[in-house]
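User: Can you help me understand a structure? I only have the sequence.
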Amino acid sequence: MENNFEKILVTNDQINKRIIELAHDINEYYKNTNNILMVPILDGSIVFAGQLIPHLNIDMTLKSTRVSLYNNNTSIDRSKINDVKIDFDLNLIRNKDILIIEDLIDTGNTLNILKNFFIKNGAKSVKICILFKKEINPRDVEVDIDWFGFLVPNQWIAGFGVDSKAKYRNFKHLGIVKKEFQ
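Assistant: Let's start by predicting it. Here is the structure, written out as tokens:
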């Protein structure tokens, strides 16, 4: 699989070390909080969340969600999103400190929609932890990111949960996908 990548941007060792640092910061922030709802966004954050959770020493509940963006069943122009489907039980949100876990931020649209959804439905607070933050300036939507692992170039990347056309989530590093495999 490594032959499908031009370059490794972040090694598995670097990722694992940074995840431990992120967990330490999150533990410190939430040390006096006992009503935390951690929400990994499917499918991308599965790998990241799976590595982060064992390092968290906080009182939390875990509930993943999926966010689907539709635009008349055609390719998505994210600036003109007509319908959003968020798979979530609203009873879990009220008065919770929510921690969204995501693998990557690029445009900011999905995170903005999800954060606003939680606030609108009674969350006490909403924080965001991202593993990879693409260097995009300006983003379609600016979203406050509370914790992030790595700033990465705005290129066709995949690995460690980040996909390229539903492939390479299981690649243990983050790399730039060769053009012929994008």
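Now, to help you interpret it: The two ends are 13 Å apart (CA to CA). The longest helix spans residues 12-29. Let me know which part you'd like to focus on.
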